[in-house]
Specification:
220 residues, alpha/beta, Rossmann fold, seven-stranded mixed beta sheet, 26% strand
């Protein structure tokens, strides 16, 4: 399978820009599940890896997070960072968006975050990169913190399997055509240092998303 490099991802999402929000027709049900089960009302610090246009961050800051909660979003795309900063301007006193070089390292203190969020990002990363990001998430999360993930995943039923098969085929031919994304199973990448608290999937128009919430192993 062809690997979608960091530089290719940056170039694609710089070009894709605001079109990212067009995918809300199948993303919204999964994001709703994440919000419902992520206990964001008890959160003081959220870190989002791959914040995109800031659509989820806007919802969290507007509807879910306590008034004193702070947010940090990172992304490799200058276009996405610009869009997210503009979108989150009403919360600029407590919301920061940073451009990253693609490294998993965030430069944050260990145990400083209550939630580590990443939606529709792991499905464009290699297994090695996913492991690096998970290691960083484990480091920055507080003992009672939560890992909150959404990813494209394998479909169920005739339509879901057909869409998934076509998607896999296109990705194998040229990852660029699908923005580097391919269906994955999130639990396959979480090992003994995580405890899965919630796992479910939802389909819209044949595209299936998986929602996973986990705690650092050893949390009560």
């Amino acid at each position: 399978m062809s690997e979608f490099t960091i530089e290719q991802a940056r170039t694609f999402y710089d070009w894709f820009g605001r079109r990212q929000d067009w995918q809300s027709f199948y993303e919204n049900p999964a994001l709703q599940m994440l919000v419902e089960h992520g206990a964001f009302g008890d959160t003081h610090r959220v870190i989002e890896f791959g914040c995109g246009t800031g659509r989820l961050a806007e919802r969290l800051l507007r509807d879910c997070l306590p008034a004193e909660a702070t947010y940090l979003g990172v992304d490799i795309s200058r276009t996405m960072v610009g869009l997210a900063k503009a979108r989150l301007q009403p919360w600029s006193a407590r919301a920061e968006v940073r451009l990253t070089d693609g490294s998993a390292a965030l430069g944050e203190h260990g145990g400083s975050a209550d939630r580590f969020v990443s939606t529709y990002v792991f499905d464009l990363l290699s297994a090695t990169r996913i492991e690096q990001v998970l290691n960083e998430a484990h480091r920055v999360l507080a003992r009672e913190g939560l890992l909150c993930l959404v990813s494209a995943t394998h479909g169920h039923g005739v339509v879901g399997r057909m869409v998934c098969g076509v998607w896999d085929g296109v990705h194998a031919l040229s990852p660029w055509l699908v923005g580097g994304c391919r269906p994955i199973e999130l639990p396959d990448y979480l090992h003994s240092d995580w405890r899965i608290l919630y796992l479910d999937s939802v389909s819209r128009c044949g595209i299936t998303s998986q929602v996973l919430i986990a705690s650092p192993q050893g949390s009560d």
